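From the pipeline queue, job 12 of 40. The input is one protein chain; the requested action is below.

Action: predict structure.
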Amino acid sequence: MDKNSLMKAVKVANNKVEVCSVPEPKGEGVLIKVKSVGICGSDLHLIDSGLMNVTPGHEIAGVTSSGVNVAIEPMLSCGVCIDCENGNQPYCEIALPNTMGIGIDGGMAEKVIVPDRFLVRLDSNVDINSAFLIEPLAVAVRSLLRVNANKAGRIIVVGGGTIGLCCVAVAKHLGAEVELVARHAHQAEAGFKLGALRSQGKSANIVVEAAGTSSALLEAVSLCEKGGAVAIPATYWDPVQLPGMEIGMREISLIPSITYGHTKGGRDFQLAAKILAGTPELPEAIITHRFNLDGAPEAFEVARTRNEGAIKVALQV
């Protein structure tokens, strides 16, 4: 094999992260030189479960061969089924198996090929090394729009990780006052940088559960007003116990969400890109560690142990 046709990419063998030489991608689509990729908690769970059989990385930004900076929407839905036509791309039957970094090779590589319709051009003031944050922002966009947060005056976010902090940024963009319940001081500080207030324990009509734990769900329900809604962008990797009596007696709706689509008619990824462009403090608040591609094994270890106040760990390619 011609050495010039090889590139570096992250692979997982025996639950261990390695940087390997692999063939450059071929096929139809736009060739993207990857510039930045985020490590997501789901990457860690898939590795630990022995289910990461592809190059990881679904939070991706890069540059086209013509020099255009783009973020990549990694869930490659079909675009023609009834769910895609209705803006519910997460329901598309081929979406999950064709999600980069989950079902097909992802962005922790020097190059990827992506269909043009899954690219979002970046605003000129967005740093390409932070633009991968558009993906978790899009997750937050769909979650908040599903509970009509665009009409809310006040929102409580439970969980100060990447998704929780992205929910803070999205809620602020939608015009809400936001309170943050964070487990760790450095998470709370990041939330304050984004304009969140410390929760006073007063209930709200909309509460976001962004931590993905039974205790966080219990707290979110307890902070939700009667007849209110708990948005759940978090993923539960283990069974959770619902506070069923409290949910039923107070008629609290639990509204889960997954990934992104065209939730209120517009493209969630496009709105997320707009929010990142309008929130220049977001990358500094969330991205705590950066490594080059060769440092991927150490980067994953930092993300796993959350040493040194890690929130979002990124790879720069």
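Job complete. The first strand starts at residue 6 and ends at 13.
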